[in-house]
Write a structure and sequence with these properties.
238 residues, mainly beta, 14-stranded antiparallel beta sheet, 1 helix, 2% helix
Length: 238
């Protein structure tokens, strides 16, 4: 799959969760994502002209209690767009602790396409990040914590490139209904400024609509005030 370095960095940034899970005992947690094993979400990405760019699936494969944290394991597949390419499969964990849902910070590096580097045995990818979270008492007008991700990629121990992604000015702007082919959802609209520094610096603005019990329903990324790309939840299978 072709590299798209520094393109629209934040797609599906906040894989959050919502539906109460009786066997998991995290205190006062709200989950902005399905928690039932086997639930699958399908996301379709579009370029700035609205043309289909990629299809990604996320499936809940496990949930468990680790200390006072509810931990969810998600299997993620980026579908190949060319017959000569292969699907890229990865997995990640997210957690909820004491009323705070902690995000999968790898999602802030989507534009770098780290999965292709991870599949190369000669390459190593190291991601260091703050733990961004969404509080259970999420409300319109709230300001959410900032965060930062640092990515180092090496080839046979030799540095290839380093990327820094800063996520700032996260705000809950409003609450509105978003309708897609997957259904209609009551969403919080959250905006954030993203600064990506690597071979060059790119400043962008991301707007996401998230729904309790579903997660991210829609994402739009803007650079210099113009739409750079979007991602939409197009199917849910429970």
């Amino acid at each position: 799959m072709k590299t798209k370095v520094l393109k629209s960095i934040v797609f599906s940034c906040f894989f959050l969760f919502s539906v109460s899970v009786p066997q998991l005992k995290a205190q006062d947690c709200k989950y902005f994502y399905p928690t039932k094993k086997g639930t699958e979400l399908v996301y379709t990405s579009y370029d700035k002209k609205g043309r289909k760019d990629a299809v990604q699936t996320q499936k809940v494969v496990d949930n468990k209690q680790v200390g006072n944290a509810s931990v969810f394991v998600i299997e993620q597949t980026l579908k190949a767009q060319d017959k000569n390419e292969k699907d890229i499969k990865t997995s990640f964990e997210v957690k909820c602790v004491d009323g705070k849902f902690y995000l999968n910070m790898d999602d802030f590096t989507k534009g770098i396409n780290l999965d292709q580097y991870r599949q190369n045995p000669d390459m190593a990818v190291v991601v260091k990040s703050d733990e961004l979270f969404i509080p259970s008492d999420l409300s319109v007008g709230a300001t959410l914590p900032a965060g930062e991700v640092n990515v180092d990629v090496t080839v046979s121990g030799i540095p290839m490139f380093t990327t820094n992604v800063q996520v700032k000015d996260r705000k809950v702007e409003t609450r509105e209904t978003i309708t897609t082919t997957a259904g209609s959802f009551d969403c919080f609209k959250i905006s954030a400024d993203v600064i990506t520094k690597s071979m060059m610096t790119i400043e962008s603005k991301t707007i996401q609509w998230i729904a309790e019990g579903v997660g991210v329903v829609k994402t739009e990324t803007y650079t210099k005030g113009k739409l750079a790309g979007s991602q939409v939840l197009t199917k849910i299978t429970k």
